[in-house]
Amino acid sequence: MSIHLEAKPGEIAERVLLPGDPMRAKFVAEHFLDEVRCHNEVRGMYGYTGLYKGVPVSVQGTGMGNPSMSIYVTELIRDYGAKKLIRIGTCGAMQPNLKIRDLVLAQAVSTDSNMTDKMFHGCSYAPTADFGMLMQAYQGAKRSGANVFAGNVYNSDEFYRHTLDRLHTFMEFGVLAVEMESTALYTLAAKYGVKALSILTVGSQLLTNERSAHKDSEQSFNQMAEVALQTIIEDTV
Ligand SMILES: O=P(O)(O)O[C@H]1O[C@H](CO)[C@@H](O)[C@H]1O
Ligand SMILES: O=c1cc[nH]c(=O)[nH]1
Asked: Which residues bind a purine D-ribonucleoside (predicted)?
């Protein structure tokens, strides 16, 4: 048991999928895992553990934003021994060639969060994905017929913005999409020497204001979940 997770020691697998939305954790657990148990209900941040193709895998909601992600990731790694973490999130597309339901792999993360400034004495740190998992996820997504992109992602502490100026600058520099948790995930994974990757489904296209309907989201979560699950069991711990 840790401060925000009530699982007993050994109840969470070394391989963990991390959706922001706890209901997405429930959906993935119920649709993809065998012998599923709920290991966490604290704060309604559901977490489940089961088997995928016979391999133990957990799926734990993380909430929205870097602070919430940092709490769950720290406890999963430090208190439960998680070794491989794959965020299965949603993002807003920032390039015209990205469409609703496409997959984005966060190869690197740019941010407006000052969270890492404090850790790195005011210098900037470049959070990056684990290369092995990134490569496997890319190949797996291609095999499954997904429209997949890998590149720089903009991690933001804001969902509602006072001005879009900063977003436009990142767009000009080719950044693919915006989300809110990957800086915390990649930086903490590096700190503790474990593997991390963010796989994101495009839920909105910021250039056209298009948004996915709920039904479409579930279909796209299937593809993201399958790519993430296959990646997390294939790569050795
Ligand atoms: O769908 P999730 O995984 O929560 O990810 C995205 O959606 C939330 C904002 O609606 C933020 O957490 C953002 O990162
Ligand atoms: O973090 C996010 C996710 C989707 N769309 C946004 O504008 N921001």
From this structure: 4, 179-181
In angstroms, the CA 228 to CA 14 distance is 14
Between the CA of 119 and the centroid of ligand 1 the distance, in Å, is 24
**Those residues with Cβ within 8 angstroms of residue 118's Cβ, 6 or more apart along the chain or in another chain:** none
List, as residue ranges, the binding site for a purine D-ribonucleoside: 4, 179-181
Looking at the CA of 156, name the nearest ligand: 2
**95 CA from centroid of ligand 2 (Å):** 13
Query: Which ipTM did the prediction report?
Result: 0.96
Which CATH superfamily includes the segment(s) 15-234?
Nucleoside phosphorylase domain (3.40.50.1580)
Angle at the Cα of 234 from the Cα atoms of 228 and 79, rounded to 5 degrees: 70
Amino acid at 21: D
Per-domain residue ranges of the chain: 15-234
What spatial distance separates the first Cα and last Cα of the chain, rounded to whole Å? 23
pTM of the model: 0.97
Instruction: Please tell me the residue having the least CA distance from ligand 2 atom 7.
Output: 92
- 221 C-alpha to ligand 1 centroid (Å): 13
pLDDT 10s digits, 2-36: 999 999 999 999 999 999 999 999 999 999 999 99
